[in-house]
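Record type: monomer structure entry
Structure origin: computed from sequence
Chain ID: A
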Amino acid sequence: MEAQIKLTKTMLDKAIIDANNSVREFVKTYGVDFTKMKSGDRATLEAKFVDGTETVINLYRTNNARGDRRISIKGIKSEAEVGSMITISLNTELHLDHPTGILIEIH
């Protein structure tokens, strides 16, 4: 399972990214269910970029009437550019039989 996001200029400039369906489904694996979150709720997951740089993924509902579902990735602006496709997936080492965390790839 993986999530994909195509970055726009606004996403990079403001670090505000809508949590699309692929993101919402992927993070359920880690116990984050946007349908159970209230406006203002937040969850944080540890992750790594493919180059090994550690980061965090923040998942939250905005604190407004709509409670928009959002994701932000610490350091994404220095790793990606407008038009980049981000893939968020399970980080599995070839010698292990289980996931070791979250991997962020930028294409």
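Annotation 1: Helices lie at 9-14, 21-28, 76-79.
Annotation 2: The beta strands are 2-6, 17-18, 42-49, 54-61, 69-73, 85-90, 102-106.
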